[in-house]
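Reference record:
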Amino acid sequence: MIDNWQVVPGVVQQGHQIASGWANYSPYPKGSIAMQMPYFQALGLDLSALFNGTLNISIYPATFVMQHPTYTFREVHWTAAHPPETFSFSPCQLRFQSLQYEGFVYYPHPETKQRHFQNSAILEILAPPIAGIGYRDRVELALNPTEILIVNPQES
């Protein structure tokens, strides 16, 4: 249990829709998350209660740096379509319309990805299905400050 969450405001943004498989051009019709979950489970992280897609939360103008995540899985070979990737996960809470949802920041390491990059102001969140949430909705993220560094430009 984390005693001192760092709460950051954010806005739901449309992503590439590859994680969920909703993109018309997705090479993964079931979505990349559904394909990756069995690998993560075999490595000790059960994400089966969470939606098979990510919520892309913009914390702009702030950015983030993944520092010491709870889980890092190196060289996960989850598809034959490209080389293995490294993934990190940090527990988080997403707060929307006075409700709180437990989930994870999902961080595919950009140095091991070939495409579908995110900018450093977007956190990808794995969460349970959330009724009524949509693009441009305002949310709060509660993050573990020992795992994720939030960089505010006004503090730089």
Notes: The radius of gyration is 15 Å. The chain has a mean pLDDT of 88.
